[in-house]
Structures are given as C-alpha cells and as structure tokens.
Amino acid sequence: MKIRKRFGQELEDLKIEVLRMAALTERSLDKSLRALFERNSDLAEEVIVEDQEIDLLEVDIDKRCLRLFALEQPMARDLRFIIGCMRVCTNLERIADQAVNISERALYLNQRPALPHQPLMEQLASISMAMLKGATSAFNNGHTSQASEVCQMDDRADELNLQILKHFIDYIIAEVESADLAVNTIIISRCLERCADLATNVAEAVVFIVEGVDIKHYCQP
C-alpha cells in the first residue's frame, strides 16, 4: 500500500513539473508576442535567455519518466500518463523554441521602421496562444472535449498563416525596399502556425492519456 501511495505521489509530482513547464512556455510565447507587437526588445532578450530553463526542465522531466519506467513498471493509464507527459514536454519545448525564433525576428524588426498594422497576425497570435492555454488546461483537468476544441482551432490557424503569406507576397511586390521586413514577418507567421500545430499535438496527447486512443495526425477524439 505504501509503495502504491508513493508511486501515486510521484505521478502527481510529475504532473506538477509538466504544468510548470507549460506555464514557462506560455510566458515565453506571451513575451515574444509582446516583444513583437509592442516593439519591446528587452522582452525579446528575456525570452532568448530564459529558454535554457525550459530546456533543462524538459531534460529533468525525461529523467523522471525514465526512472518511473525502470523502477515502477507502470501499466494501463499510469503507463499512458507517463508516455503522454513525455509527448507533452517535447511539444512544449518546441513551442518555446518557436518563441525564441519570434523574439529573434522581433529584435531585427524593432530596429527598423514599423510595418503597417497587422490584424491578421494579431488574430493568429491570439489563436495560437489560446490553443496552448487550452491544451494545457485539458492536460491539467483530463478533459478530452477541451482537447478536441484545440484540435478544431488548428484549421483557422492554417488559414490565417496562408492569408498572411499572400498579403506579404503582395507587399513585397509593391514595396521592394521593405522586402526584408516582409520576409521576417512571414517567418514569424510560420512560427505561430507551428505553435498551433504543436499545441494540437499536446491536445492529442491528452486524448491518449485519458482514453487510450492514439489520434496523432487525425485529431478526431
């Protein structure tokens, strides 16, 4: 009984660490977007420096999971939970990397004249952040319905990314001297669309943990 209770506590500690990583990732993405839209290069620098903390946390969580595999030989939902945590952390770390990419582009753009207002980019940023928060909440609460909602938002993120690409291709044609600004903005859009994809992966991991169904590449719980 004591062994089982200790194992349950270790799983709870693992969940807490994954949620801590999710919170750091959300903070990183939020800062990178504020760095971009508010033209705040200090925030961009913070994102780049703080990324190491997220990387180290991912390594620590991986070690926890491997130790639980080796010592506890988990089965059923416990096994799925540990595997799911590793999947979640892999995608969170990649989202944090995209936040770094956005910050690096923001540092470049902030040194140059501001581009016209970008409502499509703001919409994409909002959706990507909402998907990350929704996926984290679904993981925390074990809600597959919320995970499904995150998956369904991904199509809109893809549409916005395509609209932004078309807009800035036209912009490059009309404003050749500002082509470098447009190209960097297109890259940021791609980073945000990638964040949405990765948040979808987190949502898929939640369905795997709760229902034991692997919906990777399908996302139809």
Query: What is the typical, i.e. mean, pLDDT?
Result: 93
Range of strand content: under 5%
Q: What is the β-strand count?
A: 0
Instruction: Give the overall form.
Output: elongated
Q: In angstroms, what is the radius of gyration?
A: 19 Å
> Helix segment count?
6
Q: Kindly, what is the distance between the CA atoms of the first and last residues, rounded to a whole number of angstroms?
A: 35 Å
Largest sheet composition: none
How would you classify the helix and strand content by structural class? mainly alpha
Secondary-structure element order, as H and E?
Answer: HHHHHH
How would you characterize this protein structure?
This protein has helices at 2-37, 41-72, 76-109, 119-141, 144-174, 179-211. Helix content is 86%, strand content 0%. It contains six helices and no strands. Helix 1 runs antiparallel to helix 4 and helix 5 runs antiparallel to helix 6.
What is the topology?
Layout lengths: L1 H36 L3 H32 L3 H34 L9 H23 L2 H31 L4 H33 L10
Care to give the gist of this entry?
The chain has 221 residues and is mainly α. It contains 6 helices and no strands. Helix 4 packs parallel to helix 6.
Keyword list:
221 residues; mainly alpha; 6 helices; 86% helix; 0% strand
